[in-house]
Every structure is written in structure tokens, then in C-alpha cells.
Amino acid sequence: MKNPLLFPSASPREEPRAGDASRPEADYPDHVFRKLLLEKKAEVLMALALSFRRLAALEEAAAKDPFQVLHEEILALRANRIFYGKLRHVEAALERLDCGGYGTCANCGNPISAERLYSIPWARHCASCNVSSVSNAPPEAG
Ligand SMILES: [Zn+2]
Questions:
Q1: From CA 132, how far away is CA 34, in angstroms rounded?
Q2: Ligand 1 centre distance from Cα of residue 131 (Å)
């Protein structure tokens, strides 16, 4: 029995059937991943903005110990590098969502599990290829 109040967005002519596992991606459609990616992008951009604000404040703190300032600048620039890397991954994933190829492993061509994409929406590799590529492959080719 179907209660329409429990399935407000479900298609009116198709009832969800137990055992209908032919479309596992139906649990996480593209718009879910797009939303997750856009949220991550906003989060990274916010972190970058805060980091730049901190760097600017360090520049103005001329009276501070110059070695301390230098140390904090190095830490902030290192953090920025990580943020930029993440931003690049997120933007590449958004592009794959638009142009095709999203959710397909860049190494073996197998589909990346929806669970993996849900936890790492910018993932380019399936779980098994990610494990084997961690030690010997560059993080991004190009
Ligand atoms: Zn793979």
C-alpha cells in the first residue's frame, strides 16, 4: 500500500517496488550530487576568503614578531593550496555532471558506488582504484 503523503515526490504512476534494484542511482540522483558539490564549493570559497582576510591582517600587523608572521603566512598559504586543490576537484566534478562522465571511474571505467559519491561527491575513482592509486599515481593528471 502506498501513502502519497510518505512519497510526495514519487512518480504517481510508478509505485516503488521491493527488489527493484535496477537503478541504484535513483537513491542519489544527479541533482543531489550537484547540490552537495555546490555546497562544498561554497564552503571552500568561504575558507579561502577567510584565509586571505587572515593573510591581509598579518601584513598589517607589522609590530608583531616577523618570524611569527612568516610562520603564520606559511601555514595560511599551505592551507590555501589544499583549498585550491579541493576547489579544482569540485569544479571538475561539476563539469563531469554537465558534460557526462560523472560517477564513472577515471581508471577502470566502472561506475563509482552511489555511497562513495555521496560521501565524496568529487571522487574520480572507484574505491578499489582509489586504494591502488594512492601510493603511485599523481592526484590529478593535468
Ligand atoms: Zn576504478
A1: 27
A2: 9
Largest CA distance in the chain: 73
Supply φ then ψ for residue 117, to 5 degrees: -65, -30
- Span from the CA of 109 to the centroid of ligand 1 (angstroms): 6
Q: What is the pLDDT of residue 94?
A: 97
pLDDT single digits (tens) 61-70: 767 788 888 8
- Ligand 1 center to residue 56 CA distance, Å? 42
pLDDT digits (tens, 9 = 90+) for 103-135: 999 999 999 999 999 999 999 999 999 876 554
Record the pTM: 0.69
Structural contact between residues 103 and 111, judged by C-beta atoms closer than 8 angstroms: yes
Neighbours of 32 (CB within 10 A): 15
**80 CA from centroid of ligand 1 (Å):** 29
Chain-centroid distance, C-alpha 118: 9
How far is Cα 14 from Cα 5, in angstroms, rounded to an integer?
15
